Amino acid sequence: MSSNVISNPDPPSPSRKKIQGAGSDLLDLTQLRSFAMALEAGSFSLAAKRLGVTQPAVSLRVRQLERRLGVRLIERVSGGMKATPAGALVRKHFSVIDSAHSALLGALEVDATEQRQTVNLGGHPTACLHFLPQLLGRLRLDQPRLAVTLASANSAECAARVLDGTLDLAIVSLPITAASLSCTVFLHDEFVVICGKDLPAIKPRITASDLHAAQLLLPERPRQSRRLIDIWLANEYGAPEPAMELGCFESIRELAAAGLGYGFVPGMSVRSAVALASVQVARLEPRLEWTWSVVTRKSVPVSPAVALVHDAIVATGAMAHAQ
To answer: 237-253: per-residue pLDDT in tens?
Structure first.
């Protein structure tokens, strides 16, 4: 009587063993790390605590790795667990893989840091306060690897610092006399007159003769803005005698809002809803403009990062004109 005998084939030799499953040439680092931690800790539960996962998750990862490799990696012994011969081989090679992986991540981090580009930007205080904040905010969101440092100084100092290489580019008010600078005009900002809401309503457009007897709040001499205002006022009745001369337009705006006189300020300083809520605003007739330019040094090639900031300034100026 014959009988059917089913015999187990000899296990394949290591040279013939194939990794199981689709994508078999790839190993999962998470599974390898869980396996190595289990051996190091001596238990799945302690490995889970060190890895910040649950014990079943570690056990599953090790089983998945064994299934993928087609060999047992861990065997239980009295008081814990130890690596099988195949497991010892995997652990040896994983230490090399893990070191290479860490080295790669470190190298990429260094590369990302090196790719982070810094642009040193200078600007007139008025531009720094009223023109640049939103522009720099957009650049920070759109260009996370671009770092922009900002230095506030008067236009002449900004131009000098571009020439000596301290700044890559700067926003200045014209005129600036420097043949070594490349200037791109990006904004013709209109001066306006402001006064407090409690004062009588002012006309939408004001001439110099309308302000002949007014308490004027003007920037200090010898600022470029003051020279422009003096020329505009002198067309009607000679050099003005202001009630107050102040060091910044923010002071002029605050004093005008308090009803202490009629202040001359650049239009960019009263464009926000907050500023408009506290003052009346009138345009000047004839129009008085403050011309703004972004300057770079002609002798130095413009880097892509500097070009990006330069173009963003010009584009923002164009949007301000459109408003």
So the answer is: 666 789 999 999 999 99
pTM to 2 decimal places: 0.63
Question: For the chain, how many helices (H) and strands (E)?
Answer: 11, 12
Instruction: Return the amino acid letter for 276.
Output: L
Domain assignment present for 39 = yes
State whether 76 and 204 are in the same domain: no
Residues 305 and 175 in one domain: yes
Beta partners for residue 292, in sequence order: 173, 187
Percentage of the chain lying above the pLDDT 90 cut: 57
| Model confidence at 3: pLDDT above 60 | no
Which backbone phi and psi does 276 adopt, to 5 degrees?
Answer: -70, -25
Q: Is 200 left (phi over 0), alpha (psi -120 to 50) or beta?
A: beta
Range 249-253 contact pairs with CB under 8 angstroms and sequence separation of 24 or more: 249/126, 249/219, 249/225, 250/129, 252/194, 252/217, 252/218, 252/219, 253/194, 253/278, 253/279
Domain boundary among 113, 129, 152: 113
Q: What is the pLDDT of residue 101?
A: 80
- Say if residue 191 is in the same domain as residue 250: yes
Are residues 126 and 205 part of one domain? yes
Is 157 in contact with 124 (CB distance < 8 Å)?
A: no
- Domain containing 51 equals 29-113
pLDDT for res 203: 93
Q: Within a domain: residue 9?
A: no
DSSP 12-64: PPTTT----STTTT---HHHHHHHHHHHHHSSHHHHHHHHTS-HHHHHHHHHH
DSSP state of 78: T
> If you average pLDDT over each of 72-86, 90-104, 128-142, which comes out highest?
128-142
Quote the number of domains for the chain. Answer: 2
